[in-house]
Amino acid sequence: MLRQFFLLLVLGTSLGLGAQSNQLAQQYYMDGEYEKAAELYLALAEENYNTFYFDRYVSSLMNLRQYDEAERVVKKQLKRTPEELTLYVTYGQLLEQNGDEEGAQKQYRQAIKELRADKFQITQLANAFVQLTKYDLAIEVYERGGKLIKDDTSFAFNLGDLYRRKGATAPMITSYLDALVDEPERIRNVQTYFQRFLDRDGLLEAQKQLYARIQEDRKDNPLYPEMLGWVLIQNKDYKGALRQARALDKRLDENGERVFDIGTLAGNARDYEAAIAAYDYIVENKDPASPYYLEAKREGLLTRRRAITDGYAYTEEDLRILESAYFDFLRQFGNNPASARIAIQLAELEALYLNDLEKATGILQEIVGLNGVNETIRARAKLALADYYLMQGEVWESTLLYSQVDKQFKEDLLGHEARFRNARLSYFRGDFEWAQSQFDVLKASTSRLIANDALDLSVFILDNLGLDTTAVALQTYADAELLMFQNRYDEAFATLDTLVKAFPGHDLEDDVVYLRGKIYQRLRQYEAAAEQYAQVIDTYPKSIRLDNALYALAGLYEEQLDDKAKAQELYETLFIDYSNSILAVEARKKYRALRGDAVQ
Prior knowledge:
Keywords: Cell cycle, Cell division, Repeat, Signal, TPR repeat
Structural class: mainly alpha
Signal peptide: 1-19
TPR repeats: 510-543
Strand content: under 5%
Mean pLDDT: 89
CATH class of the domain at 466-595: Mainly Alpha
Organism: Neolewinella maritima
Shape: elongated
Oligomer: single chain
Helix content: over 70%
Number of strands: 0
GO biological process, one term: cell division
CATH superfamily of the domain at 466-595: Tetratricopeptide repeat domain
Radius of gyration: 36 Å
Low-confidence stretches: 1-17
């Protein structure tokens, strides 16, 4: 027992000293004290040989320019362990550093020649070349290694990494795709590399290679169409991605989830044609009881509505076709809690686009009174109904509904929205002080949109209240805003004209110009709207509407007037020259998106 204890103590002390010597040698090497490092690494290698100690010993000699001694010890070790092919790489590095390029290449080639069908040896040699950034030689090792072990795809992922480091796009793509043959579970890794390292041309190359593989693939591997669909999405080719998704959905007898996801992505990218085609495929090919059928029906309607109303040209016939689709949906699924959201969308179409307020209010009244409706959806129906009552001049009904939602959802964003609309109603009616007090509270809302709008109106009232003793000018302006809200645009223009004539030179002049721009924009007269916003910017440099006008004008150039460069310029002006504006953050995001940055 005593002998065993002393033996363990000596062994433990020896191991401890070895670890200490290694740490000390490492410190000397990192500090550039190569003489001391060489001495310690030599002792460690003689005591317990491993490649790391030996390589560090030789490297220390090379740093000390003791090339003859370094060559002597490398040759000696090669005789002892000729199967250790990394020694040839070390020898070649030594010769190269000493100016013997031809001798170095000879050693490198000898290392590759001596390769055996041993995965560990192949990987070890390739890594030795990688450490010297000799990527071509490492590639050669893996390619020869694949032939030796009779598996061309065994090192495909390693080859992909090497080609990536070299910046060789086409072979990098080929290698990564080869790697997926044996390791399909690494598809997410490959997608991450493609997303990070491929530009548009690189993605097009990947697309070309995938098309070729699909045509040549006799096994009908679903991996390639899946990758191709992903690449097409990166290129924003949603129609192409949809073709692949539909093919996979049919081949694998899926439930439509893949196709639904393409529809969502296309809709968010405003490729409404592709989105509608995706949702229609699910409706036409899946059972009504399947998990995505009803949602595809809903999203198909919503996307059709967005396609018509999202700033694009449309006719009354387009609106009537959409109206008919909504009614078909409600006839199929009934007017019930599950279809309540669709009914709210239909009411919006009737009120805001077909100008049938009576029909819109009738639809919403039914939703508000329906048993079993989710309370949040019911509250949204109440808010919309209150708006439409206000558009018809029924102020009491509006404020009653706003107040109900405010009370029910006091600390919720819905409650904040209801409170804002009620305060705006008070502003329309001329109760400016009470409205401003509510807007001041809502400036702290967690909803940026509500907070921004509340701040806007609060500053506007404060800026204009008391400019004259009767506040007639401000009330006239509020009347014009209400008329715009009610879609009575001709009357709104006439009211603004009256204001300008009655109060020439009034401080509201810039606001009048800005509001005219908003009305023209509602009427889809985008050139006229742009002229009004530009007038605010050019004529009223101290206007509180100036940042709003800049943002609105930039939005017009971006979305409707098809001048992305001008939009980018205006967004940049806004966030640089008006950095204190509540719109500066959004302007910066828009600017970066137009510039092509990845906006988080």
